[in-house]
């Protein structure tokens, strides 16, 4: 894995993020707030076209118990993702990262997919959208299946809008259950270059149509 510290002393900006993602790198904060740029080799991606919802999720999808929203509370999703996880008090999502990604959201390049029950957020995820690539960052849930439902509709949005690459950075059990695979950094860079040439609009999707499908 290639890791390097952020070399300048200025705050992380939305422009830094755009440059980083377009060049195959992304930032994470250490416990002391120091930002590091990562370029994993191998890289984890989730093939969009071959994704199928788990059998256990289909009855929940059919009940349509969850409401899906896009970008209704982007910063709130990030802060939920930054909350300590069971058995782990550390987080790589610092205040500096939240501020930079929130600016990117205002520019229309970072997005959240949120799940609600009775107007209460119960899960969600966020990431960055450039060209035909969605760079997945993190997800959370407060109710069982809350994040899985959000991910399912993320895939539906990506399919509908013509995205061709879903980057999930590192392989782990959480992303493996969604069909994540590993490819070499060289292959990732080739796929990234091709996907960046596409023009896809993440937010301009008919959610009501997706939710009824």
- Classify the secondary structure makeup into a structural class: alpha+beta
Helix count?
8
Radius of gyration: 16 Å
Low-confidence stretches: 5-9
**N-to-C terminal Cα separation, in Å?**
40 Å
**What composes the largest sheet?**
7 strands, mixed
Mean pLDDT: 90
List the defining traits of the structure above.
10 strands; leucyl-tRNA--protein transferase activity; seven-stranded mixed beta sheet; alpha+beta; 8 helices; Leu/Phe-tRNA_Trfase_N; EC 2.3.2.6; three-stranded antiparallel beta sheet; Leu/Phe-tRNA_Trfase
Structural notes for this entry:
- By secondary structure, the chain is of the alpha+beta class.
- The chain is 34% helix and 26% strand.
- The chain has helices at residues 14-22, 58-63, 74-81, 95-106, 146-161, 173-176, 185-196, 207-212, and strands at 2-5, 26-29, 35-39, 43-45, 67-70, 110-117, 120-130, 133-141, 165-169, 181-183.
- The strands form two sheets. A seven-stranded mixed sheet has the order 5-6-7-8-9-4-10, with helices on both faces. A three-stranded antiparallel sheet has the order 1-3-2.
- A hairpin with a 2-residue loop joins strand 7 and strand 8.
- Helix 1 crosses helix 4 (95-106) and helix 3 (74-81) packs antiparallel against helix 4 (95-106).
- Mean pLDDT is 90; it is low at 5-9.
- Pfam families: Leu_Phe_trans.
- This is Leucyl/phenylalanyl-tRNA--protein transferase.
- Belongs to the L/F-transferase family.
Protein topology:
Blueprint: E1 2-5, H1 14-22, E2 26-29, E3 35-39, E4 43-45, H2 58-63, E5 67-70, H3 74-81, H4 95-106, E6 110-117, E7 120-130, E8 133-141, H5 146-161, E9 165-169, H6 173-176, E10 181-183, H7 185-196, H8 207-212
Parallel strand pairs: 8-9
Antiparallel strand pairs: 1-3, 2-3, 4-9, 4-10, 5-6, 6-7, 7-8
Helix pairs in contact: 1-4, 3-4
């Amino acid at each position: 894995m290639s890791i390097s510290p952020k070399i300048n002393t200025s705050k992380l900006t939305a422009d830094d993020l755009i440059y980083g993602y377009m060049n195959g790198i992304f930032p994470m904060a250490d416990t002391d707030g120091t930002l590091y740029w990562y370029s994993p080799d191998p890289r984890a991606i989730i093939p969009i076209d071959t994704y199928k919802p788990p059998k256990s999720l289909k009855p929940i999808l059919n009940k349509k118990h969850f409401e899906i929203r896009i970008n209704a509370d982007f910063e709130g999703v990030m802060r939920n993702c930054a909350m300590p996880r069971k058995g782990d008090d550390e987080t790589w999502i610092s205040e500096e990262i939240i501020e930079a990604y929130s600016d990117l959201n205002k520019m229309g390049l970072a997005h959240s997919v949120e799940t609600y029950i009775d107007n209460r957020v119960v899960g969600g995820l966020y990431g960055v959208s450039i060209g035909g690539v969605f760079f997945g960052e993190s997800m959370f849930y407060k109710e069982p299946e809350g994040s899985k439902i959000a991910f399912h509709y993320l895939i539906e949005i990506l399919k509908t809008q013509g995205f061709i690459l879903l980057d999930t950075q590192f392989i782990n059990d959480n992303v493996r259950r969604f069909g994540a695979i590993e490819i070499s950094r060289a292959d990732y860079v080739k796929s990234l270059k091709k996907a960046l040439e596409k023009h896809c609009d993440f937010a301009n999707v008919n959610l009501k149509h997706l939710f009824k499908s």
